[in-house]
Design brief:
By secondary structure, the protein is mainly α. It is built from 5 helices and no strands. Helix 3 runs antiparallel to helix 4. The termini are far apart.
Length: about 130
Amino acid sequence: MLEVVGEESRYRSPGAQAAEHKADGLISTEVPREMLDLNNIENLVLAETKIIGTGRCSPSIAPKIGDTELKRAAAKAISEVRRQEKTHLDWNEKTLSKLAMESAMHAPATDMSESEEGDRNEEMATHSKDRDF
């Protein structure tokens, strides 16, 4: 789209600045080494979900563009990006599920005694009775 307009804009909207700040926060989160892959994929799922959510309003923008060539470029870019982001999200969700399952399969055994485990199960049962499911 910028090629069609003939210039490259350095303007970043307040929303884009906020998104960058959030991304920096996700990237800087420290997790144990064994959780790095899982954490990174979770971050990608969050980012792709946000991109797709934001992109839902994009199709309503193109028809409002007066310049025919720019309108065509915008419609093409929006369509292509939506397809790519859906593919990215699908891959990330599949990978996240796989990593979460692998992580659960390799979870360390707890050192909880049988009496502690019984107490914990009883406490959970008591709390679940108080909830509306």
